[in-house]
Amino acid sequence: MFKNAYQEGFLTIFYSIGSKPLEIWRNQVKNGHLKRIVDEDIKSMALEIMGTNVSTTFISAPRDPKISLAIKLPFLVLLLKNMRKLFTFEVQILDDQKFLRRFRMSNYESKTRVKTFCMSMPMGLSPGWNQIHLNLADFTRRAYGTNYIETVRVQIHANVRVRRIYFTNKLHPEEELPNEYKIMMTKDKKPDPKKTPIPKARPPTPEMHSNSAPAIPVGSSVTDEAIQ
Question: What is the pLDDT of residues 55-100, one digit of tens each?
C-alpha cells in the first residue's frame, strides 16, 4: 500500500480528525460499537472501539487482507485511552527470512510468550491517555534473531479510544513533535517550567528465542493529571 510512498519522518495510518479516518481500514463489530466521540479529557475527537468480546470487534489496516501496508519505518506510535476494560492489538511484520511474524499486546496476558510466528506480551496502561512506542526492529531481532523488513498489517481490538497511529524513523522528544502528533494539542506559547512534561513509553523487549519471560510493561506514559 505504501511501498512506493515517501517514507521519512512521520507516516500516519489513522487520525481521528478528518472526513474519512477509516478510509484504509476494515472493521468488524459484533456485540459492540465503533464510533467517533468527543473525548472529555482532550476535548477533541477520538475513535471509540467497544465490544463484549475483544476478538470480534476490531479495525484492521489495510482494508484488503491480501495486500500489505509495506511500511519500512521501524517505530510504531499509538495514542490510546485506557478504558479500564480488556484490550488487545497486534502488528504483523515481514522479516528478512520472508516469514510473517505477529506481535500481540494485551492488558490481560501475564507473561511474554514467543512462538515461531507470534509473540504475545502483557501491556500495562496508565489511567487516561497513553503514548505507546514499539521498536519493531528491536522486537524482531531479539525475539527471532532476524531483521525487520516492513510492517504488513495493524489490527486494533476493543476496548479502547484511539486518537492517532503513526510510524516514524526515530523516536522524537516531545518538543520536536508537530502539534497534531501530541495527545493534547497546545497553542503556541512559551513553555511553562512548572508544568510536568508528557513522558513517553519505550517498552522493554524480550530476550531472543525465549519461550516464556516475565511480564513486560508495554505502555503507559500519560496520566489524566499530566494532560489537564
Answer: 999 999 999 999 999 999 999 999 999 999 999 999 999 999 999 9
pLDDT of 175 reads 85
For the four alpha carbons of 61, 47, 159 and 124, in that order, the dihedral sign comes to positive
- Cβ atoms of 218 and 105 within 8 Å: the answer is yes
Helix/strand/coil (H, E, C) string of 33-79? Answer: EEEEEEECCCCEEEEEEEECCCCCCEEEECCCCCCCCCECCCEEEEE
| Grid coordinates given for 86 | 480488556
SS3 state at 227: helix
CA distance 84 to 64: 31
Q: How many residues does the chain have?
A: 228
pTM equals 0.81
The domain 10-172+207-227 having CATH identifier 3.90.79: the answer here is no
Residues 126 and 222 sit within 8 Å (Cβ to Cβ): yes
CA atoms of 214 and 43, how far apart (whole Å): 37
Extents of the domains making up the chain: 10-172+207-227
Contact 183, 163 (CB under 8 A): yes
